[in-house]
Amino acid sequence: MSIPHFRGVPMARSRLRAAVVAGLTALSLAALSAAAGAPAAAAPPTHDEQVTFQEWSRYPDWRQGTHQGTLAIPGVRTGITMLLPAGKRDYADPYTGVTKSWNYSTWTSPVTEVGFDATELVASWNAETPAGTWIQVEMQGTYNTGGQTPWYTMGRWASGDTDIKRTTVNRQGDPWSTIWTDTFSIDDAANGVLLHAYQLRLTLYRAPGQWRSPRVWMLGAMSSFVPDRFTVTPSAGGIAWGTELAVPRFSQNIHTGEYPEYDGGGEAWCSPTSTAMVVQYYGRGPSAQDTAWVDPSYADPQVDHAARMTYDYAYEGAGNWPFNTAYAASFPGLDAKVTRLHSLDEAERFIKAGIPVITSQSFLSEELDGAGYGTSGHLFVIVGFTAEGDVIINDPASSSNDAVRNVYPREQFEQIWLRTKRYRANGTVASGSGGIAYLIKPWWKPWPVVPGSTNW
Question: Pfam families, per this entry (predicted)?
């Protein structure tokens, strides 16, 4: 999760997350000479960081969990829904002051070993929530010491905002870990207490007397452990050089001052603006009826709509990572998740497959030639690579839609995206995003296959 900014204007406010323990680095691939001088990967990648994404998205997956009133539906991309309520609960919405009763049912995953001891976890989900319904996602971790975390709330979510105000839950933690908005984080990896396994619990809610229920077709989590570092070894590249995807271009800055109740456009809307670009690339997006609430004098109402429908009322912003991917997946036929990538080589594989990649990064203005600004947190879209391997970016922190396309130096980009630590202008140390990426695609399009990679 990240907060954007204007070009050349300092960040208005810092990220809610106090620190990010885990991050990513990449070790270069071996390279061979290739035609036109572009190097080609010659050996499987090796990494000293560990990242994995584990998900439940198939009928056999859902059958493995514990059902209380939920039903796994046979078929492709069908998921689970409420069969019979397991009970009724009151929910006092802290942002409306209204208390309502809701029927609920639950599905709980098996205890799932990460495969290594991790320092961070970010959950993702793909769901539809008809009017009168919503979902809650929780996580309980098991430490490598055998102890367990409390059940942490990772998100209360609905695709709309008339039944509940979608939110995360602040001030969750125990002596070893904390929830920073959308991310489970080990407080101090040096203590040796790390995340070894976890369960996810999904609670489906619907209004009493209503038959329509939420349906969830993917629930998953990215877990990672990455050593702290200020620099990364450049990747070899050559996989998608000379390829550029025709992703629409939207500027966040032309929305400056719009809808203060959703954080006011401009610098605060990089994440929903990036998400809106990729959703429209696939020919999806809100209908004219969906965006009828937007002032007709505002350009690109789909950006305003994305900001409203990703807004996290606890965080007070539209930069919640899984809320953005869940929003993307709320459109017919799209699947989406939050993960970390190991390198630009991996990003190239997505571009080669026709899948844009939304990335999170932070940097000083002098660390990224051509950007003209610095940021403590910003998202933009990788849409391609030049013939020389530099990164073609749709950067929403631009003065107009026409200025959104930018080319940034490959090695500089890889540093600011993948590092876990960086220096502020005053010399103090801050965190880096560690290679966070939103991956969005049509459900029928396969993910790229990289032998040995388990991070998507």
Answer: Peptidase_C39_2
Region of 213 please: left (phi>0), alpha (psi -120 to 50) or beta: beta
Residue 224 near residue 50, CB atoms below 8 Å:
yes
Show the low-confidence residues of the chain (pLDDT under 50).
1-44
β strands within 170-210, DSSP E? 177-180, 183-186, 195-206
Tokens 């990449």 belong to: 26
209-243 exposure pattern, b = at least 16 Cβ within 10 A, e = fewer = eeeebbbbbbbbbbbbbbebbeebebbbbbbbbeb
Handedness of CA 300, 303, 304, 306 (dihedral sign): positive
Tokens of 385: 């690579």
Q: What is the CA radius of gyration of the chain?
A: 21
> Measured between alpha carbons, how far is residue 95 from residues 152, 163, 173, 263, 314 in Å?
20, 11, 22, 15, 9
The dihedrals phi and psi of 30, each to the nearest 5 degrees, come to: -65, 150
Q: How confident is the model at residue 43, as a pLDDT? A: 45
Whole-number pLDDT of residue 46: 60
31-46+232-442 CATH pick, 3.90.70, 2.60.40, 3.30.1340, 3.40.1000:
3.90.70
- Would you say 361 and 367 are in contact if contact means Cβ atoms under 8 Å apart? no
Considering only CA atoms, which of 325, 274, 328 is closest in space to residue 303?
Answer: 274
Write down the residue that tokens 């996810």 correspond to: 200
Work out the angle between the directed axes of helices 270-281 and 321-329 (0-180°, nearest 10). Answer: 20
Predicted pLDDT of residue 37:
36
Domain 52-225 fold: Jelly Rolls (2.60.120)
Does 31-46+232-442 match 52-225 in CATH topology? no
Sorted by where each begins, the domain ranges of the chain are 31-46+232-442, 52-225
At 117, the amino acid letter reads D
